[in-house]
Design goal:
About 50% of the residues lie in helices and about 10% in strands. It has one domain (about 75-190, about 230-475): Cytochrome p450, CATH 1.10.630.10. It starts with a helix and ends with a strand. It is an alpha+beta fold. It holds the Pfam family p450.
Length: about 475
């Protein structure tokens, strides 16, 4: 009997997607497939992760087709008009069901689907993420840069020239910085590997809850990654409880959680503790990983482009006082070439490269001149948008493009933090951390690749994870 039931279940598992494909009630078969499996299963989307750089493969499909089918109910677009239709402020599209699966009982600003609930959350959090508040917290970033510099100085002191994995150090820096900004804690130690394992599957299949059970049983990479991150939620709960006790004991702390406890007038917000935990978890996870990825890519391109490194160093030499151990944000926040280098690396290798899914409204939606049926998942990969013909020599690292007047024409296609009402609220934190750290390191050290001919490896899950970035570092004279 059990064998019979299993056989029937297996047969249905095979026949259901085939039936859906041939029935084609939404007429999606008219769009070219990203892979031979795209029309019948999301598994092809997962398999692309093992064949290399998923968003790059999809971009190659977009070289021939403006719209590509990446799953049975998922379409990838590639044009500026599609960006406006899918992500713009007036879009009728909602975040897809995968966000609901990821969120759990208390969605964060990142996960929440309902537009009114999102607006409520954004109003609460906008105070915390206001540039004025973030600049008041600059001392927290400075403290973490000083700690990193102290470690690099120690390494350079022990050896005339030291070798460091900048990817690892940048991640340690961003974890420390965001923990202090969020909770006023000076040390946090948690691997985000579990989040990486989750995201590989959750953005690829509607059967995540079933896959999650299987994932825990699989040997090798997936099981190792899953178990490494099992303590993340417990850690967040513990840290929030500790921060709440400090608040109840009368400590006046300037941090992100303080803005969740009370508004700018000092009145209690009375949010559920689970909602606060959800927001803190998102900030610790997304706020550390994406900035570390951005820093790694920015440093990689500078190392690969000596002319850009030299020009940046000249700009910093004029702007910075050599006696400062850490660059001040007020000094570097408006340096044009520093920002150009950061934006150009974000353009070429955005931390989230794939198309963030949105669900079309039940009545359907016209996207880039093509009517798309309702309840279809749609998205525009940032990796592809950033290679729009609007960017000349789009595959080349050219920071100078951001200093030209016509760069304004590309504004709608530059989406490393997404765009519209659902754009990343934490982008200012990222820019503060990146500008201060990069300016400090480039001014203080001679930096070079251990392997000048090598390329940076990547693993794409939700984020575009870079591999190790081995650098030789040496203290510069009089710096």
């Amino acid at each position: 009997m059990i064998v019979y039931l299993l056989s029937v279940a297996l047969l249905l598992l095979i026949l259901e997607p085939l039936f859906t494909y041939y029935w084609d009630s939404k007429k999606l078969r008219r769009f070219p497939n990203a892979s031979f499996l795209s029309g019948i299963s999301d598994i092809g989307y997962i398999l692309k992760r093992y064949r290399g750089f998923r968003s790059k493969e999809i971009h190659e499909s977009h070289q021939e087709h403006p719209v590509v089918r990446v799953g049975p109910n998922t379409l990838s677009f590639s044009t500026p008009d599609a960006i406006r239709a899918i992500y713009g402020h007036n879009t009728p599209c909602l975040k897809g069901g995968t966000y609901v699966t990821a969120a759990g009982t208390h969605p964060s600003l990142l996960d929440v689907v309902d537009k009114q609930e999102h607006a409520r959350k954004r109003r609460i959090l906008s105070h915390a993420f206001a540039t004025r508040n973030l600049e008041q917290w600059e001392f927290k970033v400075t403290d973490k840069v000083q700690k990193l510099v102290a470690q690099f100085d120690l390494l350079c002191h022990d050896k005339e020239e030291a070798i460091v994995d900048f990817r690892m150090w940048s991640n340690l820096f961003t974890i420390e910085a965001i923990a202090d900004i969020a909770l006023t804690v000076n040390y946090i130690d948690c691997l985000h590997s579990g989040r990486r394992a989750t995201s590989m599957l959750i953005w690829s299949t509607k059967w995540f809850l079933s896959w999650r059970f299987v994932l825990k049983k699989l040997p090798g990479f997936f099981q190792t990654q899953w178990h490494k991150g099992q303590g993340f939620d417990e850690m967040v709960r513990y840290l929030v409880q500790q921060r709440l006790r400090r608040h109840e004991n009368g400590e006046q702390l300037e941090d992100f959680v303080g803005c969740l406890f009370q508004d700018k007038h000092g009145d209690a917000r009375n949010l559920e503790i689970a909602e606060i935990e959800a927001e803190v978890a998102t900030l610790l996870d997304a706020g550390s990983d994406t900035t570390a990825i951005s820093l790694t890519h920015a440093m990689y391109f500078l190392m690969k482009t000596p002319a850009a490194l030299s020009r940046l160093r000249e700009e910093l030499h004029v702007a910075l006082d050599g006696s400062q151990e850490v660059a001040k944000y007020a000094t570097v926040k408006n340096l044009p070439y520093l920002h150009a280098c950061i934006n150009e690396s974000l353009r070429l290798l955005p931390p989230v490269a794939f198309g963030l899914n949105r669900m079309t409204p039940p009545e359907g939606l016209t996207i880039d001149g093509t009517w798309i049926p309702g309840n279809t998942l749609v998205g525009v990969p940032a990796y592809t948008a950033h290679r729009s013909p609007l960017f000349s020599n789009s595959e080349q690292y050219q920071p100078e493009r951001w200093l030209e007047d016509d760069i304004k024409e590309t504004q709608g296609t530059f989406i490393p933090f997404s765009t519209g009402a659902r754009g990343c609220i934490g982008r200012n934190i990222s820019y503060i951390e990146q500008t201060v750290l990069l300016a400090t390191l480039v001014q203080r050290y001679d930096l070079s690749l251990v392997d000048p001919e090598g390329n940076l490896d990547h693993e794409e899950a939700f984020n575009l994870w870079p591999g190790p970035l081995s650098l030789q570092i040496r203290r510069r004279e009089n710096c």
